[in-house]
Design brief:
Strand content: 25-35%
Keywords: Signal
Oligomer: single chain
Protein name: Fimbrial protein
Organism: Providencia stuartii
Mean pLDDT: 70
Distance between the termini: 83 Å
C-alpha cells in the first residue's frame, strides 16, 4: 500500500511539471480567413525631400515663392504637391500646416494672421 501511494505521488508530481500551457494544439490559420480579418488601409505621408525656395517679400500679408514649382515628375499636371508651414522662432510655435500645389513660376503664400511683423518666422516647404 505504501509503495502504491508513493508511486501515485511521484506520478502526480511528475505530471505537474509536464502540463502544457494550452491543451489545444496550434493549427495554422487559413490564409483567406486571416487576410479578411486583418485587412485595412494605411495612410502614409512621405516627404521625398525638403528644399528651400527663393522668396521675395510682398508686404505684410504675403511672401512670393519662386523657383519651387513643378519638377520633372509633375510636368504633366504642371503643379507640385507641397506642404507649407510657418514656425514662430521666438515663441517656438508651429502654425497650422497647409497643403497646396505649387505652379511653375511664382507662388504667393499668405502669412498667418497671428504672425505680426515683430516676430521671426521660418517657412518650411516640403515637396511630397
Amino acid at each position: 500500500m505504501k509503495k502504491k501511494s508513493i508511486l501515485w505521488l511521484l506520478c502526480i508530481l511528475a505530471s505537474q511539471y509536464t502540463i502544457a500551457a494550452k491543451p489545444v494544439a496550434n493549427t495554422p490559420v487559413n490564409q483567406m480567413d486571416y487576410e479578411s480579418i486583418h485587412s485595412g488601409q494605411i495612410q502614409v505621408n512621405a516627404i521625398v525631400f525638403n528644399s528651400p525656395c527663393n522668396w521675395s517679400w510682398q508686404g505684410a500679408e504675403h511672401i512670393l515663392l519662386t523657383k519651387c514649382g513643378a519638377g520633372a515628375e509633375f510636368v504633366g499636371v504642371n503643379t507640385t504637391p507641397a506642404t507649407v508651414q510657418f514656425y514662430d522662432i521666438q515663441r517656438g510655435h508651429f502654425f497650422p500646416l497647409h497643403f497646396l500645389r505649387l505652379i511653375d513660376g511664382n507662388n504667393k503664400i499668405r502669412i498667418p494672421w497671428a504672425a505680426n511683423k515683430y516676430r521671426l518666422l521660418r517657412l518650411e516647404v516640403g515637396y511630397e
